[in-house]
């Protein structure tokens, strides 16, 4: 419960995650109404003049996106959604995955966000107010999303824990396997930090051969030489839709190139 996303909202990792989630939602709902389940939904909307101003992560992330020239189509799509929450310009307010997804769903689509922290769940409910297609539920998203996924056909499940607890990697992998094994038409997208290769490789081994075809999209801002830093992030997508590899390359390539340091790069691969 120590993690506060308000410190990190709008950073480079959010750009990777949210640009790809918007693409995944569009790709999946082309097949019909889509149910999206979000295991660690957070507050939904973030005022970047608060905690994020102290961390300065948004300055190096969404603020640079909004002022960048030569944005690729998928990065522009995310920038357009952020701009909709900032009619006076700039990037004071940043929408999290709940608002981005709920507002992107077509008729018949449904978003359910799970949040374990009661005060944050209350903020999430307030952020989603007025959206008949979206709801906030309190509880353990790992377990509740697996249960809810069993009630939907071909859902998109977003697993985005803070990775502060020792079992977050294991629980994220097991939840993905449980959803995908029951419903091979489901897509599961898992966000992870990239600090060192040993931790990330161990996570990949938990999924390998157990959950279906999987894509790993990495955006590395710098070489993975200091495990005390978040040197990059990854989106691991189980049962990716057609075109996901190209979308991931576009997103990770832009973030690594525009926001990374010397030695930063994008890697997208399947297993």
Map the helices and strands.
Blueprint lengths: L11 H18 L5 E4 L6 E3 L3 H5 L6 H6 L5 H12 L8 E3 L1 H8 L5 E6 L2 H11 L5 E5 L2 H9 L6 E4 L8 H15 L4 E8 L2 H11 L6 E7 L11 E7 L5 H16 L5 E6 L1
Parallel strand pairs: 1-4, 1-6, 4-5, 6-7
Antiparallel strand pairs: 2-3, 7-9, 8-9, 8-10
Describe the overall structure:
It is a single chain. The protein is of the alpha/beta class and 271 residues long. Helix content is 41%, strand content 20%. The chain has an eight-stranded mixed sheet, sandwiched between helices. Strands 2-3 form a two-stranded antiparallel sheet. Helix 8 (168-182) links the parallel strand 6 (156-159) and strand 7 (187-194). Helix 1 packs antiparallel against helix 10 and helix 8 runs parallel beside helix 9 (197-207). The chain starts with 11 loop residues before the first helix and ends with a strand. The mean pLDDT is 95.
């Amino acid at each position: 419960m120590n993690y506060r996303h308000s410190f990190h909202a709008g950073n480079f990792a959010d750009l990777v995650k949210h640009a790809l989630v918007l693409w995944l939602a569009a790709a999946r709902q082309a097949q019909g109404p889509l149910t999206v389940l979000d295991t660690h939904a957070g507050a939904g909307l973030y005022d970047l003049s608060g905690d994020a101003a102290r961390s300065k992560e948004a300055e190096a992330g969404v603020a640079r996106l909004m002022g960048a020239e030569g944005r690729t189509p998928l990065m522009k799509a995310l920038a357009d959604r952020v701009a909709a929450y900032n009619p006076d310009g700039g990037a004071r307010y940043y929408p999290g995955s709940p608002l981005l997804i709920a507002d992107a769903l077509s008729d018949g689509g449904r978003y359910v966000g799970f949040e374990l922290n009661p005060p944050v769940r209350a903020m999430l409910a307030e952020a989603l107010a007025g959206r008949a297609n979206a709801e906030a539920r309190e509880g353990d998203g790992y377990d509740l999303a697996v249960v809810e996924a069993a009630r939907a056909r071909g859902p998109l499940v977003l697993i985005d824990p803070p990775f502060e607890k020792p079992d977050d990697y294991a629980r994220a992998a097991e939840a993905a396997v449980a959803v995908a094994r029951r419903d091979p038409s489901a897509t599961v997208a898992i966000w992870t930090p990239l600090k060192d290769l040993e931790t990330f490789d161990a996570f990949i081994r938990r999924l390998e051969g157990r959950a279906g075809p999987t894509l790993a999209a990495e955006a590395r801002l710098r070489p993975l030489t200091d495990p005390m830093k978040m040197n990059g992030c990854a989106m691991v997508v189980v049962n990716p839709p057609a075109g996901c590899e190209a979308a991931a390359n576009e997103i990770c390539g832009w973030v690594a190139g525009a926001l990374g340091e010397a030695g930063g790069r994008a890697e997208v691969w399947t297993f």
